[in-house]
Amino acid sequence: MGYFCQPSWVVLTLLFGFSGTLSKPITSRKLDSFAANRTWKPLDAPGLCYRDIAMVSSTNGFAVAEGGFVVATTDGATWNTVLEAGADHYWYGIHAFSQDHVIITGFIDGANLSVGIARVTTDGGASWTADNIIDASAWLTGSVRFKDELHGFVLAAEAGRGHATSDGGKTWTSVPICDPWLAGWFRFSADEGIVVSGISFCTASGATWPPKFSCKPSVDVDADGPVFVLGNHSAVVGGGDISPTVSGWTHSQQQDGTWNPRVSLPWPVRAFYFDSNGKAGLAAGGNFFSGVGGLHATVDGGNTWTLELNSGAEHHAVVTAPTTTTPAGASSTLYTASCARDGGKIYRSSVDANL
Question: The whole model's pTM is what?
Answer without folding.
Answer: 0.89
